[in-house]
């Protein structure tokens, strides 16, 4: 009406541009360094335990117990605050793209036990938001003041634990906590009205927001996000979509057709919650693999999984509550209910046994040699190949010509494999770079005058202005290349193209290559085309193993370049793991990849076992582990028959792997 048009792309680009500037001003790495100096093993263990109270699993349990046993109205209140907060915080993460503290400052260390739950971008803190919602939300409807106070103190400790462990800055925690507080206090009066229309309306709004997040993930606005973080945002958006859809459908159905009673004797409540949570969590874990396989790894699998899980919690398990509320009397119907409960317990016991089997290290199988292997990437038992992760990025600036030369010329070690990542520039040049943006490793913010510049926005010549070693920290804590600008930047610290890297490496030795395509979609197809052409031109196609996190690029390579050796995609790794776990007999051509490039652990799944390696070798597949910097782990992986380890520290790796 006022003649003002707002271009959403420009608006979001300004948000993305200026948020890190604001963040840099209010964030306090100095405070984190103070906490780092106070760490002792006892406090590390204490806060590592406290921080789990802000996890997704704890929130689910709290919301369900309140819904089942305390008050349905308050249960809906917690679910709305938690789901709404997750939608908001995850959207902020992907739009702001603020790196974790140890990425921003490589000299900073974290408590290693916290690293597994600290993936993705840093701002704001999801654990802080979750803890304020779950614990602060409960405090709102608790009557006793000391209980209220204890819950708020506990929420504060969770927030503090994120800083103590080193995975979030004060700005991350403060904003995450504020999101939680706004929802806890903002939604409270709405749900106190006990009006079904309000409940349904709130979840309809959350559903729309989650759907918008799913749509946002496919727009150009998020083109600068790296693949892993974008995939995490997509997963969370679809998860919240499934939860919101389930509550929108489940709430009116429960009101009209079930109307369960929350009250029961205390001991019956304990049994009800223990069995019910077992069922819900069992569905959460048990449906993951089958649905991922059914939907081909697409994120809709998460929406369906959480949709079914929430409906089970709202509509299926509550069918038993009448029996619990009467004190579990036994009669004909009671015996049937008891029988059902025993079956459920048996199923849960089996699931728990399988879970224990999965999460514990499988040392029951001896590593085996496969001398009949035709795959040249498979090595004899005890002769693991050494790969420089990002060309040995812990010794020299990662993915640079300096790093390549350092590995080739070093008198202390010799690499078998170079590992590096590829991004496509605006003018179609493949360059060695891990991140989609340039800030973590270079002086792009100073050269281009803004942060979070996407490599795909710049031409190769423009990128050649940068000092790609500007943020490198040496072993002694110094930053030897930080002050170099313009003509002072040596050629081997400027961004390196794939052509330049292969021209040098093919002339320097008979190396192999682990290469990851970082681009997805149309850019990923173009990157695959150029990679194939470049490898063929340099005569090293058969010496490379190409990988990507993008399923569509994997399918494209299989169809277009069936002779290009590649590593397994994400869903292929999942299917392979379960095949190995169950020792299934597969046809010789069941697996279309030549290498598994995997971490030793992923969530609850332990991939670093002789079972996995033996099964892979049985099907002529090499196993290459990343990113292994611990000497003891290097030695263990060599002992179980790993074909290669990728490490940032090739000097350390060479010392370990050379031992008999």
What can you tell me about this protein's structure?
The chain is 56% helix and 6% strand. By secondary structure, the protein is an alpha/beta fold. The protein has 3 domains: 8-236, no CATH class; 260-359, no CATH class; 385-657, TIM Barrel. Strands 1, 2, 3, 4, 5, 6, 9 and 10 form an 8-stranded mixed beta sheet that branches. Strands 7-8 form a two-stranded antiparallel sheet. A hairpin with a 2-residue loop joins β7 (601-602) and β8 (605-606). α3 crosses α8 (145-164) and α12 runs antiparallel to α14. The termini are far apart.
Question: Short summary of the structure?
Answer:
By secondary structure, this protein is of the alpha/beta class. The protein has helices at 8-26, 29-38, 41-50, 56-70, 72-96, 101-104, 126-141, 145-164, 170-192, 196-216, 227-258, 266-286, 288-294, 300-316, 321-325, 332-359, 401-409, 444-448, 460-463, 498-508, 521-537, 551-560, 570-582, 610-618, 631-639, 650-657, and strands spanning 385-388, 417-424, 430-432, 512-517, 544-548, 595-598, 601-602, 605-606, 622-625, 644-647.
